[in-house]
Amino acid sequence: MSPRRARRREPPPRPAGFPRGMDHVEQWPDGEWKVRALTGASSAKSYRCPGCDQEIAGGKPHVVTWPNWPGGDEERRHWHTACWRKRLDRGPGRSRY
What we know:
Blueprint: E1 23-28, E2 31-38, E3 47-48, E4 55-56, E5 62-67, E6 77-79, H1 81-85
Antiparallel strand pairs: 1-2, 2-5, 3-4, 5-6
């Protein structure tokens, strides 16, 4: 008797923060933002997250965001993915980007 072939399973759905590999536009109460998810493999440089003021070590997954207006790419910021999602929950006196 020959062994049975394994059935192919559908890949599980990707979580919301999974890197998409492209820029996409997100709508927030403070406007439209372009967001690029980085896997970390392409970055060896470390960055400072504006959300938590902690370092994003080189090689760690994170997001890069900038306002979706002409010239907004001059204001790119590197964020921890969780910090970007929670940025509107921050208290008064802290910049939101």
